[in-house]
Amino acid sequence: xxxxxxxxxxxxxxxxxxxxxxxxxxxxxxxxxxxxxxxxxxxxxxxxxxxxxxxxxxxxxxxxxxxxxxxxxxxxxxxxxxxxxxxxxxxxxxxxxxxxxxxxxxxxxxxxxxxxxxxxxxxxxxxxxxxxxxxxxxxxxxxxxxxxxxxxxxxxxxxxxxxxxxxxxxxxxxxxxxxxxxxxxxxxxxxxxxxxxxxxxxxxxxxxxxxxxxxxxxxxxxxxxxxxxxxxxxxxxxxxxxxxxxxxxxxxxxxxxxxxxxxxxxxxxxxxxxxxxxxxxxxxxxxxxxxxxxxxxxxxxxxxxxxxxxxxxxxxxxxxxxxxxxxxxxxxxxxxxxxxxxxxxxxxxxxxxxxxxxxxxxxxxxxxxxxxxxxxxxxxxxxx
Length: 384
Known about the structure:
By secondary structure, the chain is α+β, with helices and mostly antiparallel strands. It contains 10 helices and 8 strands.
């Protein structure tokens, strides 16, 4: 592993940053506040091949890894356009289908992930299960040559702009620990409904409760094995954490960029406020924390792309934890640096607070990450 990115990765970052600058924070916030979607940016990123950098070349993608997709996600976030569905559609869903899907599923879905012409949401969280995915109650039963699904999911991102949802369920005869079965459910399927959840976060991507009421699917809606176990699920969850870390890093960079630009120009006591250590040192500390977190994210991506799922799992969880903390620090200090202006719409800093605060909760809470590290990295007894 090199601590210096390849020339190709740096070129990818520069190109994506240029695209992001064409849209920027004003575009993103306007879409979020008006109830619109970032369709134009998504389409442009897909057309330029940025959404499919991790899809194999034989399916029209760039043939890269999750590290390349994470770079795209980070640069768009740093430009003011943190696209949440990038964490879900090309990272989780495309990865799971690429690894575990049938030949027909890969041929049908992967080219469309690659060019951005399809979006797919991911549904695992349930109201009564919380962080304990072993308690999920969404079930699938065989019915002739197909399946019937019943259940409920909550806090599912972007269902209203997705073509399908990848549902995590258990087959009806499963007992004990979860051995997940994964199903692709088109959003127009009879019996599948979704209800929006009112949120305080400023984001174009909305959250939903999903209901499955006797949803009938063909047999080939199943991804992977009927009793495939956790490995095919974790094939998508490690990229989810890596991508969440990349998005957090981008938002942290955005906040620090706004703060340092303001601190260089704003004068109150004859000199720029950035000359005062009371502001300069906290910004410097936030920068250090952010760069350390980014390194762990790059390590996680490198391990995952090298095929070390176990090592990537540890690093991805650590990266997600570290980046959430660093991004929160960056945004908080950016608000403080701006003073009252930090909470105005004009400067676009205050609205970042809710976005980064969410990172301590989702896609996996900081407490569950600490449980993971305590048990698997430190060898301590399981606490839950």
